[in-house]
Design brief:
Blueprint: H1 11-41, E1 44-48, E2 50-56, E3 60-72, E4 75-78, E5 87-92, E6 102-103, E7 109-112, E8 115-125, E9 129-136, E10 146-152, H2 155-195
Antiparallel strand pairs: 1-10, 2-9, 3-4, 3-8, 3-10, 5-9, 6-8, 7-8
Length: about 200
């Protein structure tokens, strides 16, 4: 009697495990990069109303974030996300020229440790350097002290992370499908072999 080989082979389980490992590693890599970007998005702080000098190491696009819940020194500051009337300006510290600020179209919230903020606007720095960030309420309007911070642009990191997340989900579904299909086919073929005289 010739012994029939059970198919599909167990090597397909190895394929499923390999797929799980690959997509898990890719997701972990993407998550670490995204968390790092979020951390750098909450950058140098300036307490407002008032002004402060910030230093940018390199050129690029940067975000201005309203940190509505944060810690400065030993002081905990907590405010509503939206502060009406707060006017924000930025100047190049070397030339005194105004830096154009662009309001962001999307509502982007950032959280890192005890710091929570919402992106208000962004600006371009040609080559880094020192800048003066200032913010005041209009005359006659009083508002609470709050914190603005300048950090790396977070927008470009969102799309790659979403793609990584989608690939992770698809990879998990694919791996589970491999396990289920192989198990079902092996069980069916095992019954056929058992019934074969």
């Amino acid at each position: 009697m010739v012994q029939q080989k059970l198919t599909p082979g167990k090597k397909w389980y190895i394929v499923g495990v390999g797929l799980l490992l690959v997509v898990s590693a890719a997701f972990a890599w993407g998550l670490v990069g995204f968390i790092s970007t979020i951390g750098s998005a909450l950058g140098q702080q300036v307490v407002v109303p008032g002004s402060g000098e910030i230093t940018l190491a390199a050129g690029g696009t940067y975000n201005i974030v309203h940190e509505y819940q944060t810690v400065v020194g030993n002081e905990m500051i907590s405010n509503p996300q939206n502060l009406a009337g707060l006017k924000i300006t930025m100047k190049d510290a070397a030339t005194g020229q105004d830096v154009p600020l662009r309001p962001v179209s999307a509502n982007i919230n950032i959280s890192a440790g005890s710091r929570r903020g919402v992106v208000l606007m962004d600006f371009a720095s040609p080559a880094g350097g020192k800048y003066v960030l200032a913010s005041q309420y209009p005359p006659g309007l009083e508002g609470p002290r709050t914190v603005l911070s300048v950090g790396s642009e977070i927008g470009p990191a969102v799309v790659p992370f979403v793609i990584t997340l989608a690939l992770f989900v698809l990879g998990m579904i694919g791996a589970v499908a491999i396990f289920v299909i192989v198990a079902v086919l092996r069980a069916r073929n095992r019954r056929k072999i058992a019934c074969t005289p």
